[in-house]
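We modelled the chain as a single entity of 328 amino acids. Its sequence is:
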Amino acid sequence: MATMNVLEAVRDAMRLEMRRDPNVFILGEDVGARGGVFLATNGFVAEFGEQRVIDTPLAESSIVGIALGAAVSGMRPIAEIQFGDFIWPAINQLVGEAARARYGTAGQRNASMVVRVPHGGGVRGGLYHSQSVEALLAHTPGLKVVAPSTPYDAKGLLISAIRDDDPVVFLEHKRTYRLVRGEAPEGYYTEPIGRAEIKRRGEDLTVITYGLMLHYTLQAAEQVSESEGIEAEVIDLRTLRPLDVDTVIESVRRTSKALIVQEDTPVASIGSEVAAVIADRAFFDLDGPVRRVTPPDFPPMPYSPLQEAEYMPSPNKISYAIRQLIDL
């Protein structure tokens, strides 16, 4: 085992897969000599050359379009969108084409591609560098959407994503890149796409979350445990499409209460889907309403540190919601 941060885990996964499989290549803005805006591909040109680490123009539609063409031709591209906020020009290639490739060719072609997407707030990126883009992408049948929270999960899930025969959008929360450290094996290993994980065991309520909010939720769970003896079970979804419904429902049936925490706005979101599934499959096991902790429902992530902190969920906001739900 080695101790690494999330960014190092992502880098390690890509390097190992490029060494293993010559069909794997990387393309995106500044991924070459600069090593990427976050240095995820630092040193890759020296090892793999410019034919496999390709700097592209500032044109997201062409980045994903080229990746799709290569994927259906048998290669395994890793396309980087520099910030999630800039993925919208590539939506036709992702939603309109890649997600439909297998169905549209009666299974004769696979869009075996990964689109890496740094996303999320808490980094003072303002309204054009802090968006949460997962809901629209996870709405699309044919796309797999992965959102790891830890170095272990980031590395194992990215290796699985690169080897997957379907298109995978791999969401990497920018704030976790260097902030979150943990252990991960140094060599090859995979984590299954589509399986959630219980990160903390508890019996009083279930909290479902993903991404950066996992770490805030774990902090909140420790707060209420130490102050009031409330033991929250915390589930990290890890994959947003397909959702691991069974893990969520099994936990909610045991604890009888459910709280969903997300950084994205509340309407038509991942939290909405999780709440609907709980209401459908665990309604008679509930001992209270399904509650959510989210930002307010308006578009921009503020640039001001004080306003950004007010906008985003926090450990204190989550612990307050836990106490409210327990007291019902």
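As a brief sanity check on the tokenised model: The chain has a mean pLDDT of 97. The chain has two domains: 2-184, 197-327.
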